[in-house]
Structure formats: C-alpha cells, structure tokens
Amino acid sequence: MSVRATARVTAVRDRRGATSLPVLESEGPLALRRTRAVSPGSARVTVVGAMSAPLGGDRLAIEVRADPGARLAVDSAAATLALPGPGPGTGPARYEVRLSAGEGAELSWLPEQLISAHGSELITRTTAELAPTARLVLREEQILGRHGESPGTLLSRLTVRRAGRPLLDQQVAYGPGAPGGWDGPAVLGGHRAVGQLLVVEPSFDDRSPEGRLLGPTAVLTRLAGPAVLVTAVAADARELRAVLDRAHDELTAAAAD
C-alpha cells in the first residue's frame, strides 16, 4: 500500500531576534526533529526517516517556510533510498520539496544524498519562492545505484523564483526510463554521482564570483540574478561531497567579504 505524507516546518524571528519554530509537523515516514543550530540566533531541523521510503507509488512532501528575518537550516540524518514498489503496477514514487523564504530570511536546504536503487522509479520536484532580500543555500546529491548495481529511473526538477520571477528551472533524468544518452560523454560520462549547489545571495548583485571550472568534473556558473550554481559529477558520493563542500566554503567566504 502506498504512503501519502506531508511534513511542515515554519521558522519565524521572535522579538529577541532568535529563530523559533511554531510549526514542526511530522507525518508518515518524514519525522522532523529540532537539533542544535550551528550559529546563534538560527534554528536547525533534521529529517529523520521513520520507515523505508520512498517506495513505488508513495507521495511524499516537505514544506519549509522561513518567514522574514528567520534563519533556518534543514538537513537529514541519513541518505534517502528510493526503492521499488511492493508489487507491479504501483507506478513511480513522488517526492516534493517546497521551500519559501521571506524578506531578509536565510534558508539552507542541505539533505544527505538521494540513492536511486535498481528497479526504483522516482520523480522529485523541488520549488523555492524567494523574496528579493532572501538568502538560499540548496544542495542536491543523487547517487545512481547502490554499490555494484545499476540505477533505477530518476526524474528530478528544480525550480527557483525570486521576487516572483524565474531564477532557475532545470530538469534532469537518469536510468533506464530516461531519454537515451544520459550516461554518455556529454552528460555523466560513466560517473554515478551527480550533484549541484545553488547559492542565492543578494550581495552577488554587485560582486558575483566569476564562472569557471572547479576541477575536471565540476563547474561554477553565474545565473541571471544574484546567484551561482555549482554542478558536479563524480565517481562516488564521497568525492562528490568533497567537491561541493569546497565550493560551499568558497562561496560562503565570498558572500562575507
């Protein structure tokens, strides 16, 4: 039997200037826990998987809202493993992430990797709505197959709007149900780990980092707005995380200058 569940987080800035969480709602396999924040005045929420998900036919969603002035980071305790459904005809699983950040808010979406296991079918959709002065750090990492196995079918779309206008809208597809060429030299080139880091920073309006290669399989691209996108492929999850972590440190330093 498929599962339908939506978890919700709302962060607000209180009168002391700290961030509180008036809404922290878990549902189904999506258990949310408040954990220790990295910096004073901010809040951190960790997604803890309460059961195996997503399976074929599941409909899961997480809604995260950072109200004006709030500072919120959301991560996860472990990787998300997409698995085949319990029987034939269950159809693909769907996993939606809906993010929003108000004026002066800072929102980080930093989950662990998504693993597309053999035989699975998963459609993911991440959307973000940002106010003009909001800051966003978003990381996505996708591992195509567990060790020694071929991947499942994965379709992933990321849409970001800032001040009501499109900032980024892209879609990727991998695995046996994807269009031909996904594993060719023009796309993955045999790599099995792919990821991206999006940083939306209002100060980049005046001093955005220059687009350039970040090693042999990663690139930093300036977007048409105060944002940069780092895209990388790698042989495995560890190598991919190292590339994205270095990029994150560099971009955090650039925003602070």
UniProtKB/TrEMBL annotation:
UreD, UreF and UreG form a complex that acts as a GTP-hydrolysis-dependent molecular chaperone, activating the urease apoprotein by helping to assemble the nickel containing metallocenter of UreC. The UreE protein probably delivers the nickel. This is Urease accessory protein UreD. It is found in: Cytoplasm. InterPro entries: UreD. The gene is ureD. Belongs to the UreD family. Keywords: Chaperone, Cytoplasm, Nickel insertion. Pfam families: UreD (PF01774). Required for maturation of urease via the functional incorporation of the urease nickel metallocenter.
